[in-house]
Amino acid sequence: MAERALVPPSESVPRLTRPPSPAADVGASAALSEKQSPLLPSQQGGVQPDHQNEGNPATSQGVMMLQLLERVIELENWKEGKGLIVCGAKNTFCSGSDLNAVKGLGTSQDGVELCMFMQNTLTRFMRLPLISVALIQGRAMGGGAELTTACNFRLMTPSSEIRFVHKEMGIIPSWGGTARLTEIIGSRQTLKVLSGALKLDPTVALKIGIADEILQSSDEDQSLQEAQRWLQQFISGPPEVIRALKTVVSSGKELALEEALETERDVLSTLWGGPANLQAIAKQIKFNK
Ligand SMILES: CCC(=O)SCCNC(=O)CCNC(=O)[C@H](O)C(C)(C)COP(=O)(O)OP(=O)(O)OC[C@H]1O[C@@H](n2cnc3c(N)ncnc32)[C@H](O)[C@@H]1OP(=O)(O)O
C-alpha cells in the first residue's frame, strides 16, 4: 500500500493487502436469490440503542458502536452477498455522536480512541466486497455524514440533508470522513463543505457529487423500495463477479499500481474459465441492444 504522509496509527486501521490466496476473498459462488433483500440487517433492527443502557449515554453509545462493528463482522462473513443498503430509523439517517455521551468523553485521549475505533470499523465496512448504498432519509449529521462516505453510493430523498457540523463542534471529521469525502468530491469542494459546515440539500449534494441520485419519495418505505431498485441495476449477476468487481475497485483505489495490477490478475484467475464466464461465452451474448 502506498505510504501517505498523514496515515493514522497503524494499529487503528487494518491495511489493505492483496488476498492471501486468489479464491479467499471472492470464493462465494452460491447464487443470491434475486428475491433476497440486499439490505443491511439495519432493516431488521439495525444499530439500535441498547435500552438497558439508556441511563448511561456513554455506555449506550459504546454499545451502539460495538453493534456496528458486529454488523460489519457479520457482513464480512456473508460470503454470498452482493450489496447492501444502510439506512436509519424513523426517517432519520443518523445525527452523529450522542451529545450526552460525549460530555463524559472529554479528554483528547478519549477522542482519539473513539476515532481509532470508528476508523477501523468504517474502513473494514468500506472494504467489504459488497456494493453499498447509504439511503439518506432525513438528516445525516456529524458522524452520520461521515458514515455516508463509507458507502459506495449515496441516495437522498427530497427532504433529506447531509451536514458535516464538526467545525461548529470545534472538531474535524476524523472517523475517516475527511479522507473519504476528499476522494469523493475533491479537496476544494471538501474544504468548502467542511469549513462552511454547509447544509447539503439534495440539489446541492447532487451538484457537488456527494449524492448519486435524488429519489422521488421522502416516504420511509417508498424511498427504501426506490433505493432497492436503484441498487439492483448494479448487483444483478453472479455474486462472485460482483464481489470481484468491488474487490478490484477497492484495490485500485487504495493500493500502489503494481499491487493493484497483481490483485486484478489474482482475482481474474478466480473468474476466467469459471461458470459465469463459460456460460456467457456459450450464450454468445451480443451487447448491441
Ligand atoms: C463525530 C462527531 C459528531 O457526530 S458531532 C455531531 C453531533 N450531532 C449533533 O450535533 C446533532 C445535534 N442535533 C440536532 O442538531 C438536532 O437534534 C437535529 C439532528 C437536527 C434534529 O432536529 P429536530 O428534528 O428538530 O429534532 P430535535 O432536535 O427535537 O431532536 C429529537 C431528539 O433527539 C435528540 N438528539 C438529536 N440528535 C442528538 C445527538 N446527536 N445526541 C443526542 N441526542 C440527540 C434531541 O436532543 C431530542 O431529544 P429530546 O426529544 O429533546 O429528548
Automatic annotation (TrEMBL):
EC number(s) recorded for this UniProt protein: 4.1.1.94
Q: Where in the cell is it found?
A: Cytoplasm, Cytosol
In terms of domain of life, where is this protein from? Eukaryota
Its GO CC terms are:
cytosol
Record protein name field:
Ethylmalonyl-CoA decarboxylase
Which transformation does this protein catalyse, written as a reaction?
A: (S)-methylmalonyl-CoA + H(+) = propanoyl-CoA + CO2; (2R)-ethylmalonyl-CoA + H(+) = butanoyl-CoA + CO2; (2S)-ethylmalonyl-CoA + H(+) = butanoyl-CoA + CO2
Q: Main location per UniProt?
A: cytoplasm
Q: Does the entry feature the keyword Oxidoreductase, yes or no?
A: no
| Composition bias, Polar residues | 34-46
Q: Which Pfam families match?
A: ECH_1
Q: Name one GO biological process term.
A: fatty acid beta-oxidation
Q: Where is this region: Disordered?
A: 1-58
Task: Describe the task this protein carries out.
Answer: Decarboxylates ethylmalonyl-CoA, a potentially toxic metabolite, to form butyryl-CoA, suggesting it might be involved in metabolite proofreading. Acts preferentially on (S)-ethylmalonyl-CoA but also has some activity on the (R)-isomer. Also has methylmalonyl-CoA decarboxylase activity at lower level.
Keywords from the UniProt entry: Cytoplasm, Lyase
**Organism per entry:** Vombatus ursinus
